[in-house]
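anyone seen this seq b4? input:
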Amino acid sequence: MMKKDPAINTGFYHDKMPILMESPLYECLNIMPKPANLNIHFNACCPIDFMVKKFTYYNYVYFSQRDKKFLVSKKGCDKPGFVKTNQLR
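predicted toks r here
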């Protein structure tokens, strides 16, 4: 690809598309199945008891009892309903 277009990594995607589609790299990536882990959410990655035991001690983990969601933010959280998990313990 670099021999055909030394500036393949810059410019507009649609202008570079014909060169990209002819490359062996594109062929290899095109036949691969879509990775399922691209669509896994954080709270689906591990058992909830692990999350409760591990993450509820941190000062930057928040939980909303109404929404049943965790939020991790070292900058703090001003969303309504979210409380620090170490305060809930």
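The longest strand covers residues 61-64. The mean pLDDT is 79. kinda curious what u guys think
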